[in-house]
Design a protein that fits this description.
The protein is of the alpha+beta class. The chain is built from 5 helices and 9 strands; from the N terminus they run αααααβββββββββ. A 6-stranded antiparallel beta sheet has the order 1-2-3-9-4-7, with no helix packed on it. It is elongated, with a radius of gyration of 21 Å.
Length: about 210
């Protein structure tokens, strides 16, 4: 646990327990996660049941929330308490070496996972290589990602067509697209040369 910057320190005073948040680490993490989800303090307050003024104090490092309050904040951010406090993480740097990553290939579609499977992972990055005339999936395939997921893809080489929810978007080298990844979608390479793209899927960031 010595490698964990934000750790839970149980300070028992009667039945109360609190999170050691004297440093701004926990507050900064709450703020960055909240902003990544596009939530205001009021939004997070409604989702978590913790008042906006209390959330503001936590983010600024002015108060140490009880574990019960921290658990509510975590739930509002769609995390477990351990994930919020990073108690289930070991190292803060994980290197994914070329040649050692998970690699899948089907019908001319080569798929490589760039992010390692870490606890509390909220985004996955993958590299896709499409031979001419191939696709990442079929138009009738179900959504591959959980509800609320959002995907951003960048074309590194060649050109591809994105088919999503009955719509088609042509993407050339250097183009980027962001879309709701829980909708039926797939990429096609209708060109004469190989295409490569990087896709980043973020879990549960879209609000209904």
């Amino acid at each position: 646990m010595s490698s964990i910057t934000a750790r839970a320190k149980v300070e028992r005073s009667g039945a109360r327990t609190s999170v050691e948040a004297g440093t701004p680490t926990i507050g900064n993490r709450v703020r960055s996660l909240r902003e990544a989800m596009g939530l205001s303090l009021r939004d997070l307050g409604e989702r978590s049941g913790v008042s906006a003024p209390m959330l503001s104090q936590v983010e600024r490092g002015e108060t140490s929330p009880t574990l019960a309050v921290a658990a509510k904040i975590a739930a509002g951010l769609e995390l477990t308490l351990s994930q919020l406090l990073r108690l289930d993480e070991g190292e803060h740097v994980a290197v994914s070496r070329a040649g050692e990553r998970r690699l899948l290939e089907r019908g001319g579609h080569r798929y490589e996972e760039l992010t390692p499977p870490l606890p509390g992972q909220r985004a996955d990055v993958s590299l896709h290589r499409l031979a001419p005339g191939t696709t990442t999936g079929g138009p009738d395939d179900p959504p591959l990602h959980e509800p609320g997921s959002r995907e951003t893809a960048v074309v590194l080489e060649g050109s591809v067509d994105l088919f999503i929810d009955g719509r088609r978007e042509q993407l050339d080298q250097g183009d980027a697209v962001t879309f709701d990844a829980d909708l039926p979608h797939h990429f096609e390479n209708n060109g004469s040369r190989h295409a490569r793209l990087i896709a980043v899927v973020s879990a549960g960031l879209r609000r209904g």
